[in-house]
From TrEMBL:
InterPro entries: Aldolase_TIM, FAD-bd, FAD/NAD-bd_sf, OxRdtase_FMN_N, YqjM-like. This is Salicylyl-CoA 5-hydroxylase. Residues 388-712 form the NADH:flavin oxidoreductase/NADH oxidase N-terminal domain. Gene3D superfamilies: 3.30.9.20, Aldolase class I (3.20.20.70), FAD/NAD(P)-binding domain (3.50.50.60). It holds the Pfam family FAD_binding_3. It comes from Streptomyces virginiae (Streptomyces cinnamonensis). Residues 129-328 form the FAD-binding domain. SUPFAM superfamilies: FAD/NAD(P)-binding domain, FMN-linked oxidoreductases.
Length: 773
């Protein structure tokens, strides 16, 4: 088999070495346009997981790398004159130049044909003369560019600026430096990689970068291979307090914008992309070299395990893509956190450090507590109460904890009347321990239902049925009970037809939900007056029915959401156009409801903060909408996203909507509820403690386990008033015994070993003592 590898970086060389090791008879040629000792960048960080894979795959490479690793376990956060340290993380780093040397030596020993200072023929040419072409030609891959339509390439270039530097100051830990200046926030990611050097990445938001004067330096001519020396000297001046007289070291160092590379597929015939050519992840969450070497391992293994190239390439992509996409989701969250770091620089040092460390949602409250309990205790201010079980004032209510059961569409009502299933559902959820339980998708009129099975609140009979439910719930529990009111707008056509009313729903504009839905009629003044009156009447009924909180549905493509989104509001009158126009009618409804809803209760509004479609609601719009809603009397904003247009393309993932609650809370100060794939108490604790939201909506997990909140308390050993068990269920409040939990292990050590320290610094100068302490 003839294999061509384009690019002699770590990914290409490691693949060549592994493939040759598995199949010595293969003819493998690597084209590298640079010299053997050419390299850009400084240190490369590896996780223990990746190192375990390298150790298993090629012991010689692993031993050579391990002999020169810088190892440490601490992360330092330098912020507002303090340095806070979190231990127990575990890092290993190596100079990129040394890593390349190790891989080059291994390829030479295995007799891989590596052609330095030689540009590769095009991938198409190589594909005609070779059985396989592996394109490892980097983030600006010529191979990918030549076949971009096949690969389905998406390049997401961010606005922020960063510069990759080194320094002769040897940091003892992974160090985040956050310096606030008049021009904005200057941040640094620094870590050691040998006994004399550290990597030092400087990053700024675009506006801060310009205000700091770096734009002028960047405009000057910097030929290939040279560095922006003026910017480097300026960085040395600004960061002198952290460099302690040491220098910043350039290596083709210029200001860059980070580009996230995604591809629909990594394969084209017998051509395959590997490493940065296929995908990138922001440097704040991981190493591109690490990902490339993991790719190389899986590709070499797949070629060995499968009978032909097409099958092997499909297996490679199938195995690697989920891993890469998970890393990219975490990296995207981290990238955006640093892009908007000014949202958080008002936090106190402990909360800020916790927020920074949990920014990607991979590291969590529990994760940090296991690694370094002292750090988490300091963030918690030594409170024994988990963050999720701390009370929160919401309007005129005091919620006993931060868990909200969001509105659930049960579709079990008849003629809009909630029945026994609604009673069982809501009472079970209330007894399950949440601070607030919301009844879902309740229509304010017969033609405002999304489906014929939706409950309503426009008749006396419906009001009485709700009063029966709230009376039972309040008789059994002090959980606050709320109801969501809505008019489904253009999503209400089928329900209207079933109710015997006009099957054409009323909407902001005459746009059908999808091709199977009726075209709605554009709401006129009379329609808007009627809808406002329906919301006011339903709010009065909700109060009389005994609800403690009211939520207005302004999201998910329902009527009032239709007015807010530029994708669904095409009006040319005073209720359309710019955001002020699109807000006008939703604010009229909110003002009217606020007048009749008691001040001693809570008034919430749910919004879709993003439409997940081009041309939709922007982040700036979401912030302005939340600010306007709070100004009109909303006590909190329930921050959801999507379901506004049928052609949406959401990026699902764990707690994927939380960044929007975070954005609104920290940009406006308005209390927010975070929702969307929040399913563990660890995530709830992390979100609350980091200040990303004030409350967390836990939906599907509560359906899976209606006692989710109480079980979360038991799992954390919390038995306080924020998680009360009903008297009849109190016997089940402790965790039941499981297999072997009663076993007490015997002592088998003659001398007890001292507990290992969670803190380990990189101290290369202590030559006579072990480097790892």
């Amino acid at each position: 088999m003839r294999v061509a590898v384009i690019g002699g970086g770590p990914g290409g060389l490691y693949f060549a070495a592994l493939a040759k090791q598995l199949s010595p008879h293969w003819e493998i040629t690597v084209w590298e346009r640079g010299a053997p000792d050419d390299t850009f960048g400084f240190g490369v960080v590896f996780s223990d997981e990746t190192l375990d894979g390298i150790a298993q795959a090629d012991e010689e490479i692993h031993e050579a790398m391990s002999a020169e690793f810088a190892r440490w376990a601490d992360i330092d956060v330098r912020y507002r004159g303090t340095t806070l340290t979190s231990g127990g993380h575990g890092f290993a780093a190596l100079g990129r130049r040394r890593l390349l040397s190790i891989l080059q030596e291994r390829c030479a020993a295995l007799r891989v044909d590596v052609r330095y200072r030689t540009g590769a023929p095009s991938a198409a040419e190589l594909a005609a003369s070779h059985d396989l072409v592996v394109a490892c030609d980097g983030v600006r891959s010529a191979t990918r560019t030549a076949h971009a339509d096949v690969f389905g390439t998406e390049l997401d270039e961010r606005a922020g600026r960063y510069m990759w530097l080194g320094t002769d100051k040897v940091f003892e830990a992974f160090t985040f430096i956050v310096d606030e200046h008049a021009f904005g926030t200057l941040q640094v990611h620094a870590y050691p990689y040998d006994a004399t050097r550290s990597t030092f990445i400087v990053e700024l938001e675009e506006g801060a970068w310009r205000r700091a004067g770096f734009e002028e330096y960047a405009r000057r001519d910097h030929p290939p291979g040279t560095s922006d020396e003026d910017s480097i000297r300026r960085c040395e001046e600004l960061l002198a307090g952290h460099l302690d007289g040491h220098r910043l070291l350039p290596n083709n160092s210029k200001w860059l914008r980070f580009t996230t590379v995604r591809n629909r597929t990594w394969r084209h015939g017998n051509i395959v992309l590997l490493g940065d050519a296929a995908h990138t992840a922001h440097f704040s969450i991981g190493s591109g070299t690490k990902l490339a070497m993991e790719d190389a391992l899986v590709l070499a293994a797949s070629l060995h395990e499968h009978p032909d190239v097409p099958t092997a390439l499909a297996a490679y992509e199938e195995e690697r893509r989920p891993v890469v996409e998970s890393t990219q989701r975490a990296a995207q969250a981290s990238l955006e956190w640093f892009e908007h770091i000014d949202r958080y620089t008002g936090q106190d040092p402990h909360q800020f450090a916790f927020n920074l460390l949990t920014r990607s949602r991979r590291v969590t409250y529990d994760n940090l507590r296991v690694r370094d309990e002292g750090f988490t205790a300091a963030v918690n201010r030594a409170s024994a109460v988990p963050p999720m079980f701390r009370p929160f004032p919401l309007g005129g209510l005091l919620l006993r904890n931060r868990v909200v059961v969001p509105p659930t569409a049960l579709h079990t009502a008849r003629e809009g009347i909630p029945g026994d299933f609604d009673l069982v559902h809501l009472s079970t959820q209330a007894l399950g321990g949440a601070g607030l339980v919301l009844a879902g998708m309740t229509a304010v009129s017969a033609d405002g239902r999304a489906t014929p099975g939706c409950p309503g609140l426009w008749t006396d009979e419906q009001e009485a049925a709700w009063r029966r439910i709230t009376g039972f719930v309040h008789g059994q529990s002090d959980t606050c009970l709320g109801i969501q009111l809505t008019h489904a707008g253009r999503r209400a056509g089928a329900a209207g037809a079933a109710a015997g009313v006009d099957p054409r729903p009323v909407a902001a504009s005459a746009l059908a939900w999808d091709e199977r839905s009726p075209v709605p009629r554009e709401a006129d003044r009379a329609d808007m007056d009627a809808v406002t009156a329906d919301f006011v009447s339903a709010a009065r009924r909700a109060d009389r029915a005994g609800f403690d909180a009211l939520e207005l549905q302004y999201g998910h493509g329902h009527l009032l959401s239709g007015f807010l989104s530029p994708l669904t509001n095409l009006r040319t009158d005073a209720y359309g156009g710019d955001l002020d126009g699109r807000l006008r009618f939703p604010l009229e409804v909110l003002h009217a409801v606020r007048e009749v809803w008691p001040a001693g209760k809570a008034l919430l509004v749910r919004i879709s903060a993003a439409d997940w479609a081009e041309g939709g609601t922007t982040e700036a719009d979401a912030v302005a909408i939340a600010r306007a809603l709070a100004g009109a009397g909303a006590d909190a904003v329930d921050v959801s996203t999507g379901e506004v247009v049928a052609h949406e393309t959401p990026r699902y993932g764990r707690s994927y909507q939380t960044p929007y609650a975070d954005l609104i809370r920290n940009a406006t100060g308005v209390p927010t509820i975070a929702v969307g794939a929040i399913s563990t108490y660890d995530d709830v604790n992390s979100i609350i403690l980091a200040g990303r939201a004030d409350l967390c909506g836990v939906g599907r997990a509560q359906l899976h386990d209606p006692l989710w909140t109480l079980h979360a308390a038991a799992a954390q050993g919390y038995q306080g008033p924020a998680a009360p068990w009903a008297r009849a269920w109190r016997a089940g409040s402790g965790r039941p015994p499981s297999a072997r939990t009663d076993r007490i292990p015997p002592r088998l050590e003659l001398l007890r070993q001292p507990a290992a320290s969670v803190h380990r610094r990189w101290l290369p100068r202590a030559a006579a003592a072990p480097a790892h302490r």
